[in-house]
Amino acid sequence: MKYHVLGRTGQSVSALGFGTMNLPHQDLDISKRALNYALDRGINYIDTAPNYKNSEEIIGESISQRRQEFFLATKLRQRDYQAGKAEIEQSLRRLKTDYIDLLQIHYVNHDHEYDQIIGKDGALKAALEAQRAGYVRFLGISGHRPELLAKWIGSDIYDTVLFHMSLVQPFALQDLIPTCQQLNVGMIGMKPLSGAFVKPASMALRFSHSTPIDVLLSGMKTVDEVKENIAALETRIEPKEKEQLWSLAAELGEHGCRRCNYCSCPIGIRIPDIMISHLAREKMGLLGRGAQFYEEQAAKIQQCHEYEPCRKKPLCEPACPYDLPMQQTIQRQSKVGAK
């Protein structure tokens, strides 16, 4: 296993981290085996969040007795002080630990939201209070707007930042990573398969691994998935392969969608999922989950052609901060065959 220093935290962390969002969807014994196997193989970065159902409790039940063997990251989803303080205390109980290595202010995508968090009675107050008391070692922030994250980490509050890094969302390479490197902020990349959409999985993992991030989070569930992820990253990425992967990422990222979720669809189309995946779908096809998604959305995609209120001007597009042609992209998908 390869290790990196996580920015100015000075902590040595495995290049592959264990994302636990999907653990609650299966038998506890399967999760226990996967987590313990990962630790046995040298994965020492474990990521969770209070809103990942009972993920924190699974970690507490499965590996709290091995607490000194891993760097534990969870998140703070609340926005005000009192709720934030209660959530931190709840996480400590669920995780069966006396301290959290990294507490990340989670899923911040709006300036007004950030202003609330850092305000007089915002959630950051609770995080800093927990840090001073020794319950939290380091603070981080996460979100889906790399250009905003680049601005916020300049405050010198945050030791790390968590962001999308995949073949179909490589934007942090330009918008955020240079700032992190300048400030020595630890870089954690998430969703290398863009939510289990992008194939082949090994190529997607290797692209994310080839970037300057310190930790790549992969949402593993079983021992076999841990083995597959480790195997995908075992061999060195040579310059020629890196050049090919980065070229492909530039092509597949031309859609421009950061998944900020500002947009909404009156007929229930999941706009960001389509915007982010459509070029990969057209060029390479998708993993099973992605193909199933398009099957489930097919009727709504067809309805997009006929929905009267959007005929003259799409209702979704004015909300997009990147002025993306969402209606045109969505309607085109009704003509794309499965691969």
TrEMBL record:
CDD domains attached to this UniProt entry: AKR_unchar (cd19100)
InterPro entries associated with the record: AKR (IPR020471), AKR2_Oxidoreductase (IPR053135), NAD(P)_OxRdtase_dom_sf (IPR036812), NADP_OxRdtase_dom (IPR023210)
Organism superkingdom: Bacteria
Domain NADP-dependent oxidoreductase per the UniProt entry, residue ranges: 16-198
A Pfam family annotated for this UniProt entry: Aldo_ket_red
GO molecular function terms attached to this record: oxidoreductase activity
PANTHER family assigned to the protein according to its UniProt record, in alphabetical order: D-THREO-ALDOSE 1-DEHYDROGENASE, NADP-DEPENDENT OXIDOREDUCTASE DOMAIN-CONTAINING PROTEIN
Protein name, per record: Aldo/keto reductase
Organism: Ammoniphilus oxalaticus
Lineage of producing organism: Bacteria, Bacillati, Bacillota, Bacilli, Bacillales
